[in-house]
Amino acid sequence: MRMSMVRLAPVLILIMAAASGACASSGRARPAPFPTPGGHAMPPIAGSASGSAIADLAVSFVGTRYRTGGATPAGFDCSGLVEYVFARYGVAMPRTVAEQYGVGRRVRRQDLEPGDLVFFHTVSRGASHVGISLGGDTFVHAPSGSGEVRIEHLSAAYWASRYVGARRIAD
User: I want to staple 25 with a disulfide (CB 3.0 to 4.6 A). Which of 79, 131, 147, 148 is the partner?
Assistant: First the structure.
């Protein structure tokens, strides 16, 4: 019995780490453009990709379940949510957090606007989690720990201590 627990310990640690860590998508799961749960392609939304429009669309997915590698309304990981929301406005985004951190221009935290991307280090050094700013102190994201897309505060102790930076994509 004792030997079995010793063998299971590393497996349990890996499972707990995967379940508690926020999105650090590898980019391996890549859906077709603008997919829906039924598998039909959705056309881009007409109109400009303003920061407010990006933020509003992201908020519409609050409550959508988290899914590792997910990039559709059937389930999102953090970078999949960003990729999907921007794609709906015809803005191509890279699939992984690290790649998304290299897009757009830097924004100071005090200058955040709706639609800006906010980045955090959660499972590794550097940017490993991303959300979409709603302006000021709030952002929407797909954290694996909660099981669904939700709104958070940048000033919350957990996020404030892990903040890496922000990027502006839409103008």
Answer: 79
